[in-house]
Amino acid sequence: xxxxxxxxxxxxxxxxxxxxxxxxxxxxxxxxxxxxxxxxxxxxxxxxxxxxxxxxxxxxxxxxxxxxxxxxxxxxxxxxxxxxxxxxxxxxxxxxxxxxxxxxxxxxxxxxxxxxxxxxxxxxxxxxxxxxxxxxxxxxxxxxxxxxxxxxxxxxxxxxxxx
Length: 163
Description:
Largest sheet: 4 strands, mixed
Number of domains: 1
Strand content: 5-15%
Number of helices: 7
Helix content: 40-55%
Order of helices and strands: EHEHHEEHHHH
Shape: globular
Structural class: alpha+beta
Number of strands: 4
């Protein structure tokens, strides 16, 4: 179940290293701000506005505001979700001119050599495609709409009756 305040992390569920990182993020997520799903989940890449080919190349993070982060930006968005007070420290570092490209190159270096890094078993058997939960699909649609219409974002609760 994906709540409006959670970051959706999309990773390669058939990759043992990626699955290990997803497990590590879940263990560190004491505030319950992350949901990790494999890109192999049926129709998930399309639901966040990307392609299977792009999701296969890089991890993705879909923010509550509807922003899709990729490469080291996805790492930064995921780590920021773990921090108290919602401070965007890692995304700010990622946005520094010159560091953006360097950090993405570092991400792709690790990604290209992930088979040589320590890992556990993958989350999915090859060819397994879990179904996308309808509630998650609805939340993803709301987030994509919010990028074009900010009023789709959750606001302060309204009074039950207006007099």
